[in-house]
């Protein structure tokens, strides 16, 4: 029996619907429109597409988006100044710095310039620690989106063995913290792990965040496991061999239509929360 | 063949010897004595012993210790004010808040009042994130001490399967980050893990930080594994069944004389670093 799909598009749309109602109530009550500033440095075509998509989705739920586009030759200092300006702007509730930035930019410094209260993309060190300690900061959006998707399908995590493949700052590492906070037994695999297959074979929950097409083979998947595929490689291919994995898993995300829509829904949900906390 | 011992006392003494020389050079050159403030709230006998031990060790290497003792009824606000005073005192290089604080204290707020540059005990959220991202902040002292001990014996970590048992804020969670930064494949087990034995059986490196006497059974240990026992329970008993584990492990820490001395050595090493960074 092939796996059931964890439908990210449908779940994200439900979340977006709720956000839309809440924004309408807020605005009808005289509140300001929740506002997300998207900051893009340079003109990478994929980054242009991503930020446009986020702004569009933002406006589709009645929120405001503020487009900040800086030339590729922007210095770290200029970028920090721009972010600080947005940080101090009471009309901006959330700040998203689209990454990757051009290589001459100190990206960590740029992220850290975002005030934690406006870090709706969950990229600062403060948000990272908050995720590990359950302190109520904002989630990194992709791991946060995966958690929301698993919860939407009532999939139990407590006591389950979860394996995260990848240890990036915005995906693998925060993902591990969120799964641990949900009481899973968490293993983090990465490029130096000699036998990823062995770890995956024991996993009740697999999160693939490698960025390599079909890196996770279908026959690695434990029968009945839950598979979240955060990969998005050329040709709409995920990090998991989808068809073969679906033969063994109980639940699996499609690519596209799985993790991707949940990432944006999480971003917008957190922007609304930031606006509400700000009153 | 029984395991060889990871001699924490000997390794810590080597570190302390180096610190002593460096402090002597610093002071001879007209530099200030590196100064560690120990803050103790209340009169818990074990905490009194620990802080006294740390101060004594501090002075034994030529550093200065500053004893701050506050009554058990101290409020969070009063404690924060005290820590901020130390944070602003240019004569204080490192601040150690002995935990646990009395239950009415907001311990997280108190930790966060310590400036990261003086967080030589590695308890702030900033230090936590730094450990996960390799950003050069201070280590939590017990995990940092374990890493120093493993390195002193040239034990390889890259590509090894490491299992951390326990997920406390100052031990299990930072330990996982440090092992990951050393390229181990890291699994975090905890009270909700149904089968800790199964995870330990696959581990090349085991760090026990449970706080339950002999929780880790000897026959769980994979032959040839490295075992670091951070437990220190009544009667000088660790979290690992020592004798039985030593029959299978290649390397194991004794209790006492293993992790404990390394914790204090790490604290003092980091206090010296804080002083040197401060110039």
UniProtKB/TrEMBL annotation, chains A, B:
Pathway: One-carbon metabolism; tetrahydrofolate interconversion. GO terms for biological process: L-histidine biosynthetic process; methionine biosynthetic process; purine nucleotide biosynthetic process; tetrahydrofolate interconversion. Its EC number is 1.5.1.5, 3.5.4.9. GO terms for cellular component: cytosol. CDD domains: NAD_bind_m-THF_DH_Cyclohyd. NADP(+) binds at residues 166-168. Signal peptide: none annotated. It catalyses: (6R)-5,10-methenyltetrahydrofolate + H2O = (6R)-10-formyltetrahydrofolate + H(+); (6R)-5,10-methylene-5,6,7,8-tetrahydrofolate + NADP(+) = (6R)-5,10-methenyltetrahydrofolate + NADPH. The keyword Lyase does not apply. One of its GO terms (molecular function) is methylenetetrahydrofolate dehydrogenase (NADP+) activity. Homodimer. Catalyzes the oxidation of 5,10-methylenetetrahydrofolate to 5,10-methenyltetrahydrofolate and then the hydrolysis of 5,10-methenyltetrahydrofolate to 10-formyltetrahydrofolate. This is Bifunctional protein FolD. It comes from Phycisphaera mikurensis (strain NBRC 102666 / KCTC 22515 / FYK2301M01). The gene is folD.
